Amino acid sequence: MLATIHAATLHGVSGHPVRVEVHVADGLPAFTVVGLPDASCREARDRVRAALESSGLPWPPRRITVNLAPTGVPKAGSVLDLPMAVGLLVACGELEPGQVDGLGFLGELGLDGSIRPVPGVLPLVDAVEVPGMVVPVANGAEAALIDDRRVRVADDLRGLVLALRGDGEWATPEVAEPSPVDGGGPDMGDVRGQRFARFALEVAAAGAHHLLLVGPPGAGKSMLARRLPGLLPDLAPDEALQATRVRSAAGEALPVDGLVRRPPWRAPHHGASPAALVGGGSGTMRPGEVSLAHGGVLFLDELGEFAPSALETLRQPLEDGTVRVSRAGASAEYPARVLLVAAMNPCPCGGSAAPGGCRCPSTVRARYVRRISGPLLDRFDLRIAVDRPDPVDLLSGASGESSADVGRRVASARGRAVARGVDANGALDPAALREAAPLSEAAVRRLEAELHAGRLSARGLHRVRSVALTVADLLGRDGPLDVDLVEVALGLRIDPFRSEVAGVR
């Protein structure tokens, strides 16, 4: 007997359709899985047998061959346990082919017959080639995000068989409440002083401009960065679905209703490897931190402590908004449109402006700064020095402007960008930026001076112009960009490692 069950396997953050073909024939008892399964996929033979026996279902003492088609696509994980078991029951006559017609199956089997959740259900369900899906109860809300699929859930193999035969009821899906859409998290009102840094944070949020904060320990760099997600608007529906796909494929916890609505926040440790940052791996291709932050904020604290080889892998994703990982046996593409925020000290000792100042020799300071390459530094639209706040501001007890108030200005500025056809000004290409942000004659002369002096590259010119447009949007100004807006944009793009700026004596 032969049975074919529809399923899918995960490839990067995308699903690939799989047909699980189960053949039962006379011969010495055996269970063979072919079609490029990995170790965990081959081990399904033991889980399937134990689950059937624990559920009171027969195990045929015959030769069983499972083919995972197409055979040229690697299969990984335990997601094919359930389709193998259902295919075996159909091939043995325990289920009629018509009872599984039009249904796909995804799930891991426990030895007791339970059906356990699996990662990546959202892209997997989207890839299956039939209109109906059966998934574990815990994955029901996530699978239901695919509009054109009829989703049913099951919590154990015995109950699933009864439901397919019509002798029992389907398991009840978990009722999910929509995730809260308010910003939550730390509030900008907690920040004392730091008016210039607060303004830079607002510009970064309004235009999706990458931001680098350089200053001594205790200046508030991390505190400021952690308040950035609260200034960002909710994800658009398509972007929310894409962010959910990435987190699902990585096996990360999802909101109760299955959909990631708020911009993600990722802050990897400075010991992260290149593969941890951009994705990949020697076995299963997994999305990295830059993809898990898609649509949100990637915060690199202690930037100077990251391995230069790891930081350099971010250059292409920051430009293209995608990560393309290639290995000898496979390749994958992940979304990676993020707002990068980084914080670092001006030198290894911190470069404190307190009495005594920096204790690092000039050679040590130079070596520390060189860990951040010029091309990577050029990708930061905003580069500012953050000094320790004034003691009067710290002790006054007066709260700063709240995230809600700043967020309203950010939303207004982003609304103007949407009218230009992009989510934020940072996404404007050169042609669109020239059309949206013409320069006054005085602004042209000012930028020419910076270009001739070598302080701006062609990329830097584009970024300065984009930042100036964002500042104009925050101020509600229309028309050509005047020199005052360009000066503000240049003032937000200083060299923060100059001794007179960073407090290094």
Condensed summary:
The protein is α/β, with parallel strands linked by helices and 505 residues long. The chain has two domains: 164 residues, Ribosomal Protein S5, domain 2; 315 residues, P-loop containing nucleotide triphosphate hydrolases (Rossmann fold). The protein contains 22 helices and 16 strands.
Give the secondary structure arrangement, pairings included.
Blueprint lengths: L1 E10 L2 E12 L4 E5 L4 H4 L1 H11 L8 E7 L11 H11 L11 E3 L2 E2 L5 E2 L4 H7 L4 E5 L3 H4 L6 E5 L2 H9 L29 H13 L3 E4 L6 H5 L11 H13 L15 E2 L7 H5 L10 H4 L4 E5 L6 H5 L2 H6 L1 E5 L4 E5 L3 E6 L17 H8 L4 H4 L4 E4 L5 H6 L6 H17 L10 H7 L4 H12 L5 H18 L7 H9 L7 H4 L3
Helix pairs in contact: 2-3, 7-17, 19-21, 20-21
Assign the CATH topology of the largest domain.
Rossmann fold
Query: Termini, distance in Å?
Result: 82 Å
* Low-pLDDT stretches: 499-505
Portion in strands: 15-25%
How many domain units?
Answer: 2
Q: Pairing-aware structural class of the strands and helices?
A: alpha/beta
Q: How confident is the prediction overall: mean pLDDT? A: 89
What's the gyration radius in Å? 28 Å
Q: Give the fraction of residues assigned to helices.
A: 25-40%
The largest sheet, given as strand count, sense and whether it forms a barrel, is: 5 strands, parallel
Number of helices: 22
Q: So what's the CATH class of the largest domain?
A: Alpha Beta
- Apparent shape: elongated
What's the arrangement of strands in the largest beta sheet?
Answer: 11-12-15-10-16
The number of strands is 16
CATH 2nd-level architecture of the largest domain: 3-Layer(aba) Sandwich
In CATH terms, the superfamily of the largest domain is P-loop containing nucleotide triphosphate hydrolases
